[in-house]
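Thread: "does anyone have the structure for this chain?"

Original post by V.I.:
We have the sequence but no experimental structure in hand. Need at least a predicted one for the grant figures.
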Amino acid sequence: MKHLILVRHGEAGFSDGVDFQRQLTSRGKENLNRLGQILLQGGLHVDFMYCSSATRTRETAEILKKHVPIALEEYTKDIYDGNMETLLELLEKTPKDAQSCMMIGHNPTISVLIAHLTNGNYVGLLPGMMAFIDLEISEWYMIGLGTGILREVLQ
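Reply from O.Q.:
Generated one for you, tokens below.
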């Protein structure tokens, strides 16, 4: 069994037209630090993390990494630009020895991915929310429709 944590970036402010460079608000940072404390108390550790290279997702990752040990990470614009199939292709390439993977991305794609993996269990993640999914697979390349069970949603 593999474990996937899907995260929507924290609350971001508005920009002067460059969506990719939007930054987290003070409230967004506070909420992520509070969530990080919950994760720290739960003893979460992550073997591999994919993160969109947009400013608000990178800031989200930096805050979560203060509370959660993350062994390896990859930042990619593919999460920002991509659709659900793009996210699945990335997850299929997760290192074989990784038992847990976190992906920090954007809506609506991250919420659509939850529904796809859990066979229709749609959860519209608000900024700073995360979903924990147990994947009934032995290898990451097996990820797909209905391979996951939604275990928990935190905000």
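V.I.: this helps a lot. The domain at 2-12+19-154 is CATH 3.40.50.1240 (Rossmann fold).
O.Q.: and The beta strands are 2-8, 46-52, 70-76, 100-105, 130-135, 148-154.
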